[in-house]
Design goal:
The structure holds 2 protein chains of 2 kinds. Chain A is α/β, with parallel strands linked by helices. Chain A contains 9 helices and 19 strands. Chain A folds into 2 domains: 236 residues, 3-Layer(aba) Sandwich (Rossmann fold), CATH 3.40.50; 128 residues, Distorted Sandwich (Coagulation Factor XIII, Chain A, domain 1). Chain A is globular and about 65 Å long. Chain B is mainly α. Chain B has one domain. In chain B, helix 2 packs across helix 6 and helix 3 packs across helix 4. The longest helix of chain B has 28 residues. The chains are: A alpha/beta, B mainly alpha. The interface between A and B is large, with 55 and 41 residues. Strand 4 of chain A pairs antiparallel with strand 1 of chain B.
Chain lengths: 406, 279
C-alpha cells in the first residue's frame, strides 16, 4: 500500500449541550454566564488509514458518529481535536439535491448543483450530456423543478453528484431515495467508482449493499471505533450485537405523529424465545409487539413488511389478512405476533418494517424497522447444500414425482 | 489518476482567529457567479413586476424624503438641481451601501441547509448575494441617469467618478454585510434588530437632508460618518453646483472601509468554523 488517501489521527468532535444551538444577543451580553448543560463527544479518538482505491463502509446505530465522521472529512464542520490528511479531491454526497431550487429549470439546477459540488464551468460543459443521459430526464430539462416528480428530481440530483468524479467519494445513505431500479444504478455507479481506483467511504443501514460494495468496514459505537476489519467480519459482529428489541428511543421515534391515538409499547424479533437479528433459516422467527389504542379507530390495521437487500418488498402481512370483514380493534392494550415459518426467507439481509395504518392511508407514525440477517445454518436442499438460493422467497410448494414407466 | 494528485487537505481545529483564504475564494469564482445567478433568477422569476421591483424601494424613499424633508420641512437642496433629484442621488449612494449590507447579512441563514450538507468557501454565500444585489443598484443608477438627462440636468465630466463613489459605498456595505452574516447566524435575535438599525443609519446619514455645517458637536459627530464622503462624492459626480468632499475625508472613509473589511473577514472566519453546529 502506497500513501494512504486519508490519514486520521485522534480525530474528535465535541458538541456542547444547551450552550450550543441558537444563541441570543441577551446571552452574549450576560457576561461570564455559567455554561449550561454538559458536552458530548459525537466522535472521539479515531485513528484510521484508508488506502487509495479502497471502499470502506462505516456502520453503526443512530448517533454512533457516522455522519459526524463524514462531515468532518468533507470539511462541513471543524474537528474539536485531532487531525486528518486527505489526499485528493473530495466529493461528498451527504444528501441528494444539495442546493437545488424548485423554481429553477432542470438545466439551471444542474449548473447550480455541479458548481456547489465543486465542478468548474469547463468540466460541466464536457459532462452535461452525460448527466442528462444518466438521469434520463432530457424531455423536462427546461421545466421548473417543482413540476417534476420527486423520483425524477432524485435521479437528476444523483446524476449530478455521480458525475463530479472526485478522487475520494463520501456517501451517506443517499441510496435511501428513489425506486429499486434507480438504487441499482446508483450502486452500479459506486462500484464503477471503486473499481476505477476511487476511494469510497460509505455509510448505510443497508448492510447488503455495504457487503457488496466495500472490502473493509468500520463499526462506530457511541463515537468510538468499536471494530475495524474485513467487511463480513464486522457486519456479522455488528448484527450479532444489535438488539432485536425496540428501545425507548426507537419507540419514541415510532410514536411521533401518532397524535395520541395510538402507541407502540414494545416490539421484538425473536427466535427460540430469544431476541435476535441474526436468525437461522431452519427455525421459525417471531415478530412480537404490544400496542395501545387510545382512541378507537375503525379500519386500523397492523402490518409488517419484509424487504430484501435490494429494497424490494418480499411480502406484506396484515394482521387481518384472513378475516372475512374489516376488523375493528377496541381501545385498550393489545399484543400481537407474526410468525414467519422456517425455510421461507433466503439467507440474505432483510429489513423488517412494522407499522399501523388506517384504511391503508393514514399512517400512525413512522413505525419500527430492523435489519435481519437470515443465516443458512441448515441446508435447504440436503442433496446440494451449497447451491445459492434464487428468488425472494423459497419455493413454498413441493414437487411430487412418480415414475410411471421404468 | 488519483494516485498522482498533489492536492492535500489538512483537517484540524483551526486557529481561534484568522482570515479567510483569498486563493480558495478565487478558485470558487464559478460558484460565486452561479449562486449570484440563482439569486437573481429566483428573485425575478417569482415576482410579477420583475426587474421593476428594483426601483420600488429607492423611488419610495425619494418620494418620502421629497414630501417629508422637501415639502413639509422645506429643506432646500444645495446645488442647481431640484430637491427630488438631489435626494435620489443620495438614495442611490445609500443603496450602494445598504444592499450589500442587508443582502450579505441574510446570506448565511438563508442558506443554512446548504451549509450543513456540503463544503464550500462560506464567504462565497454573502459575496454572491452582494453580487446579485448589485443588479438592483445598477438598475437604480441607470434610472437616475435617465431622469437627469430627461430633466435637462446632464452630469458633466465628473460622472466619470461615479464608479468610485459606488465602490466606496459597496466597500463599506460589504464589510458590514460580511460581519453581520456571521453574527446573524450566531445570534438569532439580531435579525429583528437589523431593520431598525438600517432605518436609524439611513436617518443618521445625510441622504434626505444636507449635512449640517459649522462647529457644533452634532455636526462634528455626523462628519465622522464614513459613509458621508461616499454620499458627497456621488452627488458631486452626478449633480451640478455641488462641492466635492475633501481628499482627507475620502481617504478616511476608504481607510475605514478597508479596516472594517479586514475585521469583518476575521469575525466571519472565527464564526465560520462552528457555524454548522449552531444552525
Amino acid at each position: 500500500m502506497g500513501v494512504p488517501a486519508i490519514t486520521i489521527r485522534g480525530l474528535g468532535k465535541r458538541y456542547r449541550l444547551g450552550g450550543q444551538g441558537y444563541a441570543t444577543l441577551r446571552d452574549a451580553l450576560r457576561w461570564g454566564r455559567p455554561r449550561s448543560g454538559g458536552e458530548v463527544w459525537a466522535l472521539r479518538g479515531l485513528d484510521l488509514d484508508i488506502a487509495q482505491g479502497e471502499a470502506l463502509a462505516i456502520i453503526g446505530g443512530n448517533g454512533a458518529g457516522k455522519s459526524t465522521m463524514l462531515k468532518l472529512l468533507a470539511r462541513i464542520t471543524e474537528p474539536s481535536e485531532g487531525r486528518a490528511e486527505v489526499r485528493g479531491r473530495v466529493g461528498a454526497m451527504l444528501e441528494v439535491g444539495t442546493g437545488f431550487h424548485p423554481e429553477l429549470s432542470g438545466r439551471d439546477n444542474i449548473r447550480l448543483g455541479s458548481a456547489i459540488l465543486g465542478m468548474d464551468a469547463g468540466e460541466l460543459a464536457r459532462r452535461f450530456d452525460a448527466i442528462v443521459d444518466f438521469a434520463g430526464t432530457a424531455r423536462f430539462l427546461d421545466e421548473p423543478l417543482k413540476h417534476w416528480s420527486s423520483g425524477m428530481q432524485a435521479r437528476l440530483a444523483f446524476s449530478v453528484a455521480a458525475h463530479v468524479d472526485p478522487e475520494i467519494l463520501l456517501v451517506d445513505e443517499v441510496l435511501a431515495v428513489g425506486d429499486a431500479e434507480f438504487q441499482r444504478r446508483c450502486l452500479g455507479r459506486m462500484a464503477e467508482a471503486t473499481s476505477g481506483g476511487r476511494t469510497v467511504l460509505f455509510t448505510s443501514h443497508q448492510l447488503g449493499a455495504v457487503r457488496r460494495l466495500c472490502s473493509r468496514a468500520l463499526w462506530l459505537d457511541a463515537g468510538r471505533a468499536r471494530m475495524l476489519g474485513p467487511v463480513d467480519q464486522v457486519v456479522n459482529a455488528y448484527l450479532a450485537a444489535t438488539v432485536a428489541t425496540a428501545d425507548e428511543a426507537g419507540l419514541d421515534r415510532a410514536n411521533l405523529g401518532c397524535q395520541g391515538r395510538f402507541r407502540w409499547l414494545s416490539a421484538t424479533i425473536e427466535q427460540d424465545g430469544q431476541p435476535a437479528c441474526a436468525i437461522a433459516n431452519g427455525a421459525s422467527t417471531t415478530l412480537r409487539c404490544r400496542f395501545e389504542i387510545l382512541v378507537p379507530a375503525p379500519g386500523l390495521r397492523i402490518f409488517a413488511d419484509v424487504l430484501d437487500d435490494q429494497h424490494e418488498l418480499v411480502f406484506r402481512a396484515f394482521h387481518d389478512e384472513h378475516e372475512d370483514r374489516p376488523a375493528h380493534l377496541a381501545a385498550g392494550v393489545w399484543s400481537a405476533m407474526l410468525e414467519i415459518p422456517p425455510h421461507v426467507l433466503p439467507d440474505r439481509l432483510h429489513r423488517i418494517h412494522l407499522q399501523a395504518t388506517q384504511h391503508n392511508e393514514c399512517m400512525f407514525g413512522p413505525g419500527l424497522s430492523w435489519t435481519l440477517e437470515v443465516q443458512r445454518t441448515t441446508p435447504v436442499n440436503r442433496a446440494y447444500p451449497h447451491e445459492p438460493l434464487r428468488g425472494r422467497v423459497l419455493a413454498p410448494g413441493r414437487w411430487d414425482l412418480v415414475q410411471e414407466r421404468a | 489518476m488519483p494516485g498522482s494528485s498533489p492536492h492535500i487537505t489538512i483537517i484540524a481545529p483551526g486557529p481561534f482567529w484568522g482570515l479567510p483564504d483569498p486563493l480558495e475564494l478565487w478558485r470558487a469564482r464559478t460558484l460565486i457567479g452561479v449562486l449570484a445567478r440563482r439569486e437573481v433568477l429566483i428573485r425575478y422569476a417569482s415576482a410579477g413586476l420583475g426587474a421593476a421591483w428594483a426601483l420600488v424601494t429607492p423611488l419610495a424613499l425619494v418620494a418620502a424624503f421629497s414630501i417629508g424633508f422637501g415639502s413639509v420641512a422645506g429643506i432646500r437642496a444645495p446645488g442647481d438641481a431640484p430637491y427630488w433629484l438631489w435626494a435620489w442621488s443620495g438614495v442611490l449612494a445609500w443603496q450602494c451601501f445598504a444592499i450589500p449590507m442587508s443582502r450579505g447579512a441574510a446570506a448565511l441563514i438563508d442558506n443554512e441547509r446548504l451549509l450543513g450538507r456540503v463544503y464550500l468557501p462560506r464567504l462565497a454565500l454573502p459575496l454572491s448575494a452582494i453580487l446579485a444585489g448589485s443588479i438592483d443598484a445598477m438598475i437604480c443608477a441607470a434610472a437616475l441617469l435617465a431622469a437627469l438627462v430627461a430633466t435637462g440636468h446632464q452630469p458633466g465630466w465628473q460622472v466619470l467618478v461615479l464608479p468610485a463613489a459606488v465602490l466606496l459605498g459597496v466597500l463599506l456595505g460589504t464589510a458590514l454585510g460580511i460581519t453581520l452574516s456571521a453574527l446573524n447566524a450566531r445570534y438569532r435575535d439580531l435579525r429583528h434588530a437589523l431593520p431598525v438599525l438600517m432605518q436609524l443609519l439611513l436617518l443618521l446619514c445625510p441622504v434626505g437632508y444636507p449635512a449640517p455645517t459649522g462647529d457644533g458637536l452634532l455636526a462634528r459627530l455626523l462628519a465622522l460618518n464614513p459613509l458621508a464622503p461616499a454620499l458627497d462624492l456621488m452627488r458631486w459626480s452626478l449633480l451640478p453646483g455641488i462641492a466635492p468632499p475633501s481628499a482627507a475625508a475620502l481617504a478616511g472613509s476608504l481607510a475605514c472601509g478597508l479596516a472594517l473589511l479586514v475585521v469583518g473577514a476575521a469575525v466571519f472566519r472565527h464564526h465560520e468554523r462552528t457555524i454548522v453546529d449552531r444552525i
